[in-house]
Amino acid sequence: MIRFERAHDIQHKTSLIVDALRLHYINPEQVVCVRSKGSKTRAYARCWEFPRIWQLALDTPPHYIIEVISERFDKLPDEEKEKVLIHELLHIPQNFSGHIRPHGKHLGKYLDRQIDHLHRSFKANISNDNVYMQKRTEEIL
User: Fold this and answer.
1) Exposure winner among 1, 4, 122, 129, fewest CB in 10 A?
2) Each residue of 73-114: pLDDT tens digit?
3) To which H or E segment does residue 133 belong?
4) Of 124, 57, 121, residue with least CA distance to 89
């Protein structure tokens, strides 16, 4: 049986990544992070959409769920965890519609290079904006 719990550590890291990479089209307050335990998937994490029909039916703005698979994700080194989270954030389209960008032509065949580049930018921005990031961390917590 799969169990889910809110992942506040992942929520925090995701918000830092969004800020550091200046992904202004993503509202971190509408991205919910959860940790699952007991899944048989080979994935490290998944991004879940909130389709327009549900938004209309529940009168709720678009949201996304980033699920990290505890058995696989938690064993990764911190840098790989950051890359996985960047990968999942890339599934969120710039119009923040509630739908998912697929791996196909939109994310491209050079996805690993793009993620490595974004991860280097994330690390550089974190060190350059250290005072800003410390303040943002305090706001998030």
Assistant:
1) 1
2) 999 999 999 999 999 999 999 999 999 988 766 555 678 888
3) helix 130-140
4) 121
